[in-house]
Amino acid sequence: MSLVEIKNFTKEYRVGFLLKKTVAVNGLNLSIEDNEILGFLGPNGAGKTTTIKAILGIITPTSGNITIYGNTPQDIRAKSKIGFLPEQPYFYDYLTGIEFLNFYGKLFGIERGNLKKNINSLLEEVGLERAGNTQLRKYSKGMLQRIGIAQALINDPDFVILDEPMSGLDPIGRREIREIITGLKKKGKTIFFSTHILTDVEMICDRVAIINRGKLIETGDISSLTGTEDPKYDICVESPSSETLNAIKSISETISIRGNCVYFSAGEKERDEIIRNIVTKGGKIISITPVRKSLEQIFFSKIGNHS
Asked: Hey, what CATH topology would domain 36-55+72-222 get?
């Protein structure tokens, strides 16, 4: 089931002294499915934040429409299901973590007894149970990101939007945020986040959507985009005999020589036949290596083709 449907979404702005028209997003069509992690990728100025603002109902489309469970983003029924962490959140430095979450919980009208339980549970979930009484000005960058995610979850939303949640974090901080995001999926929540850190997307996302200059240029699940759905293999054989080479030439997609090894390239079905030929003819297999594109390679090839 699609949680969010974005259809022909276009957003135009008038900027400068002459009020020149600028198109931030142009005819975007995108579905966000229930209980998936969708990575929203694109360079600076691609239209990611504009799209997020439209989903949140902060801005309205110039044309097209957006629905969340069939409701408009401005509908209170839609807003009550959303949790949001902006790219540059504002934190009240002299509030403690507990006071900060209590403030946002009251904005949602959560009853005091339930709110206290929610706060304790959220602090534990994001790994800040020992920092609840510490002022936010004493938090590290990673701790602030985690308390920001806790704030986004205070209303127990079905749909969580995170704008650059890994920005500025060290590898340990990024791992902690990844674990929180995958934990949310296990609880049945849908996560939509934008980021520039492609390795994190590749590790945790079910699908990705790539946007550039306001247009969606690619969308799909990670396995189909990177080739893990239909894998290729490099098979390294040490000094194969001419008999072995002749037997494999018609099977292998490509053959290359590097040093004293010959590399045969093949799909999954051909791989097994090549291995049988080599073994029966007394050949020596050095390695069998899966070959796949990285998400980074795919991203730059798509952006390069649409720059």
From this structure: Rossmann fold (3.40.50)
Q: What is the mean pLDDT of the chain?
A: 87
The alpha helices in the chain, defined as continuous H runs, are 48-56, 76-79, 97-107, 112-125, 141-152, 171-186, 198-204, 222-226, 242-249, 268-280, 295-305
Give ∠ CA 50-53-57 in degrees, rounded to 5. Answer: 135
| Calpha distance 257→248 (Å, rounded) | 14
Cα separation of 75 and 77, whole Å? 5
Any idea which fold 232-291 has?
Alpha-Beta Plaits (3.30.70)
DSSP sequence for 43-74: -TTSSHHHHHHHHHTSS--SEEEEEETTB-TT
Considering the chain, tell me which residue range(s) the CATH 3.40.50.300 domain(s) occupy.
36-55+72-222
Q: Is the dihedral of CA 296, 301, 304, 307 positive or negative?
A: negative
**Cα angle value 116/151/130 (rounded, 5°):** 60
Q: What token pair was written down for 181?
A: 């995001």
Q: Three-class SS of residue 202? A: helix
Q: What is the pLDDT of residues 144-161, one digit of tens each?
A: 999 999 999 999 999 999
- 25 is written with which tokens? 């997003």
CB 202 within 8 Å of CB 233: no
Residue in the block written with tokens 């990728």? 41
CATH 3.30.70.980 occupies which residues in the chain?
A: 232-291
C-alpha–C-alpha distance, residues 43 and 28, integer Å: 16
DSSP letter string, 114-156:
HHHHHHHHHHHHTT-TTSTTSBGGG--HHHHHHHHHHHHTTT-
Per residue in 195-233, pLDDT (tens digit) is 888 888 888 999 999 999 999 998 988 777 775 556 778
Cα gap 38→205, rounded to integer Å: 6
Is 104 strand, coil or helix? helix
Strand partners, 289: 234
